[in-house]
Amino acid sequence: MLCMMTLQVYNSYSRQKEVFEPITPGLVGMYVCGPTVSGESHLGHARPYITFDVVYRYLQHLGYKVRYVRNITDAGHFEEEGREAVDKISTKAVLEKLEPMELVTKYTNLFRWAMKQFNNLEPSIEPTATGHIVEQIEMIKTIMTEGYAYEANGSVYFDVKKYAANYPYGKLSGRVMDDMLETTRDLDGQEEKRNKADFALWKAAPPNHIMRWASPWGEGFPGWHIECSAMSSKYLGSEFDIHGGGMDLQFPHHESEIAQSTICHHGKLMARYWLHNNMITINGKKMGKSYNNVIKLTELFSGNHPMLEKAYHPMTIRFAILQTQYRSTFDFSNEALQAAERGLKRLWEAYEALGKLMEPETAQPAADAELDGRVRKLMAEFDAFMNDDFNTAKVLANMFELVPIINGLKDKHVPMSDLGPGTLGLLQQKMALWLETIFGLKMATEADNALFGGVMELLIGLRKEARSKKDFATSDRIRNGLGALGIQLKDEKDGGVSWGV
How is 6-42 classified by DSSP, letter by letter? Predict the structure, then answer.
């Protein structure tokens, strides 16, 4: 049964809040761009997948049946540098001396493991780019038939200038076509493009390129953008409700998705609502390789990174992210995570104490009507804040206002009779629902042996792999980092590794 409250979401496409009305009453189709599995997931991956996990959970709470599709990009995510596109998967496979599918399996498993640590629900469908090459080729053929793509030397490009003459290219990202043509940098060997802004739908594979598939244009591999257009339309249809992802994907990825899908589906806008989470900064700086501040999730969980003062439990990271509204910048720092750690501990201790409280056997009107009314108002606002574009931060702020009241009841500084009949039971029900079911939080304990053991196995495996490649700097860094935490590794004669504290 659907909850009759009105949910409003901020639509990046219209740049305003809109009442959420799914295309099919009672059903929601949601597509979120998944990771490119060419390496370990990092802190920047935590925010979108935790954000949209909560969106998924809340839509289910409202009574919708949700089909949540989140893809795995295991081919074709390349940066065009000259005529030969550099495929991230193939490049990393060569560096790690692995078969491409061996590499993507390794990092896909790592990604899924990390998502479980965050207590994220699994998506309804998790398609891979390599599993949908046929669908991508068919979409490209349709775009060419419609006259919006052209072949050049075995590659196929989308004609952005022609598209922009008939459709609002740049509306999602706020970019102007003329400006894009002026500011897009010239790249060596790009003479085969008609316009600098054109993007690849299919790239001809050079002789040394590992990942390649047969196509009507010769052997090659798909462009990054066409993958999501093909997979979203296959599982959600030509029009669906929500397309989500990080704000950094608005251009060129999502803008290009819209263009491709619009042509393939006779002018239809592929998604009704476009939701984008803001970025994570680290000590006020953008996270990126150039700043040398990329923190992998395994490093966050183990504390094995020079920017980290200690290890942080996945629930601490989840809680910290939910303390900021998803469209606001979240600035990561040791101080911020340690504050979140203390805050979650305080909130969870109050929640556990709340569960042990019992209502009086004889129901009486509230002795303190003002307090009773305040408690009920704070609880009622949970729904109001979440219905205002998923404002988890305000919900948690209300919970913290309830903490001293709960502690007062526990310590008997606040008489149970101050609350009216049913208020305590409702509070217990609401806190359980919101903390565990909707926000997906669990108690974060340092004695979480399953998590700790999993992290240790992972780090030992990474160290073993580094040693096999004679990357002794990485091997020593893992060993020394664990040693600084009081964890000693011992290399056994049989090639195994034991550890102890």
Answer: PPEEEETTTTEEEE---SSTTEEEEEE---BTTS--B
pLDDT tens, position by position, 302-329: 888 889 999 999 999 999 999 999 999 9
According to DSSP, the β-strands at 149-152 and 155-158 are antiparallel
pLDDT band (50, 70, 90) for residue 357: very high
Contact assessment for residue 199 and residue 158, using Cβ atoms and an 8 Å cutoff: yes
| Residue 168 pLDDT greater than 80, yes or no | yes
CA distances from 479 to 71, 464, 473 (A): 34, 11, 10
d(CA 342, CA 332): 16
Q: How far is CA 29 from CA 21, 256, 347, in A?
A: 12, 20, 34
Summarize pLDDT for 197-206 with one digit per residue, the tens. Answer: 999 999 999 8
Rounded distance between C-alpha atoms, residue 404 and residue 289, angstroms: 43
Domains and CATH numbers, the chain: 8-277 (3.40.50.620), 282-438 (1.10.730), 451-500 (no CATH)
The pLDDT assigned to 359 comes to: 87
Do 348 and 341 form a contact (C-beta atoms < 8 A)?
A: no
434 φ/ψ angles, rounded to the nearest 5 degrees: -80, -45
Q: Looking at the whole model, is its pTM more than 0.85?
A: yes
- Which residues is 138 bridged to in the sheet? none
